[in-house]
Amino acid sequence: MKPTRNLAADQRRRKLITILWTGLLATVTITLIYKEMTAVLYILATLGVTALLVVVGLSDLTPSDNTSGDTASNDSAAIGSGITSTFGSK
Fold first, then answer.
1. First to last CA, the chain
2. What is the DSSP string of 13-25?
3. Contact yes or no for 11/18 (Cβ under 8 A)
4. Distance of CA 46 to the CA centre of its chain
5. pLDDT per position in the chain (90 positions), as tens?
6. In a domain, 51, yes or no
7. From the CA atom positions of the chain, what is the Rg in Å?
8. Which of 21, 30, 51, 89 is exposed most, by the fewest CB atoms within 10 A?
9. Range of the domain at 51
């Protein structure tokens, strides 16, 4: 019989993995600072920033709730400021 997982157990497991990764990276960083290996720290920092920029560059930042396909009719700024929309009124 295979045990079933619930949402709380999955979230707990992911949180534990995140904490372990953070602890490991903190330990490596503190060790490199203690041993004065700044060249390695610079290389790791550069690789980390590069990876972050690649992830952001490849991410899809378009809104997914727009089903009509017409992005020009977004009146969120007018709605937020209380101005009545004049888009499309001819």
1. 67
2. HHHHHHHHHHHHH
3. no
4. 19
5. 566 778 888 999 999 999 999 999 999 999 999 999 999 999 999 999 999 999 999 988 777 665 555 555 666 666 666 666 666 665
6. yes
7. 24
8. 89
9. 24-55
